[in-house]
């Protein structure tokens, strides 16, 4: 775990949400402290890993229906192993190639860091999963093509991702303890590939930055995307040699990302547009959209037939959502 003793009492969040973009200016003394802390960080030796797999994180039962969609669409195209990291709100899918691995958030991040987001856990889970070639997908993303492209992309470079819409990183470098010497592309953290063995230094560096999120997320970047971009800058990684970009993300309305390879979509990321407390917005130009509708219709009635949840409103308390979803036992008929 990171050594926060280097920063005694310097990080005061004042109840502000971490991870939001804002024109904050980091105190010069704090920047110097973080530069010193980062200089002391040394990635350990790369572990032995083998095989290819996919991981996702389901924190909160309100994300479980989207995880079911991810699981079913993956099984339509691939028998790759899937690991679902969850906080106790998930249920057994009964699939021998799908593992539910409980993640204790307080063991994975500093116990006193109460305002963490699940962004902090992504690199933790990528290190833990045991796969050599790993694709991380947000729980609101799913595959729409056979998954042989994972190994092909990681055969080109140890790290692969789709470049985000704005092209280049929007990290506030003047606030960071890291100064880029190479062009840094904008990453999209909801779908990201790493060869854990050859990309271990990158993964360890990105994880260290994520674990120091009080500083980096607050002053420098936005979630794990900023962590990846800062790791690219810190290690002076070069496109083509150290990371591979198959294409730029294509944004569809409303807030849906298409990830293409050779102009064909392979991943759809709905950015929480399939949530149990709101009506999904469909886009029939997307692949397999009617099949996604069919899966969703199977899931949603179980939710809305329960007492106290017939009113479609996003203001339902998350604890109430979790309780109702556990009672509904979604997707497991």
Keywords:
7-stranded mixed beta sheet; disordered C terminus; alpha/beta; 11 strands; disordered N terminus; single chain; 10 helices; Spore Coat Polysaccharide Biosynthesis Protein SpsA, Chain A; about 325 residues; 4-stranded antiparallel beta sheet
Give a written overview of the molecule.
The protein is of the alpha/beta class and 333 residues long. The chain has a domain at 52-275: Spore Coat Polysaccharide Biosynthesis Protein SpsA, Chain A (Alpha-Beta Complex), CATH 3.90.550. The chain has helices at residues 28-39, 64-77, 105-108, 119-128, 149-156, 200-211, 213-220, 223-235, 289-304, 318-328; strands at residues 52-58, 81-86, 98-102, 133-137, 141-143, 159-161, 191-195, 243-244, 250-252, 256-261, 264-269. The strands form two sheets. The chain has a seven-stranded mixed sheet, with helices on both faces. α2 (64-77) links the parallel β1 (52-58) and β2 (81-86). It is globular and about 55 Å long.
Write the layout of secondary structure elements.
Elements: H1 28-39, E1 52-58, H2 64-77, E2 81-86, E3 98-102, H3 105-108, H4 119-128, E4 133-137, E5 141-143, H5 149-156, E6 159-161, E7 191-195, H6 200-211, H7 213-220, H8 223-235, E8 243-244, E9 250-252, E10 256-261, E11 264-269, H9 289-304, H10 318-328
Parallel strand pairs: 1-2, 1-4, 2-3, 6-8
Antiparallel strand pairs: 4-7, 5-11, 6-7, 9-10, 10-11
Helix pairs in contact: 2-9, 4-6, 6-8, 7-8
